[in-house]
Design brief:
4 helices, 61% helix, mainly alpha
Length: 82
């Protein structure tokens, strides 16, 4: 574990203490959990972007074929009847 020092304004520190107390955690553990959660979310997003851009997802149309309109793409009734 690595110890660090952070600076918070009074209101943020007060609210963080309340949140940590509500979760039966120390301030140190509460802040550590917030940072871990943020890093995990960022890593998951980056991995999802990598998977998407490395996939072979291609929308195929014949030459001269028109694109579907927004209404056609979002027509829920037509999707249900198929």
């Amino acid at each position: 574990m690595k110890n660090i020092t952070i600076t918070l304004d009074e209101e943020t520190a007060r609210r963080a203490r309340v949140r940590a107390s509500e979760r039966d955690m120390s301030m140190s553990r509460y802040i550590g959990e917030l940072v871990r959660r943020d890093i995990r979310a960022s890593d998951e997003y980056q991995e999802a972007m990598q998977r998407y851009f490395s996939s072979n997802l291609v929308i195929r149309r014949q030459p001269g074929e028109r694109r579907a309109t927004r209404d056609e793409l979002h027509d829920r009734a037509a999707l249900r009847s198929k």
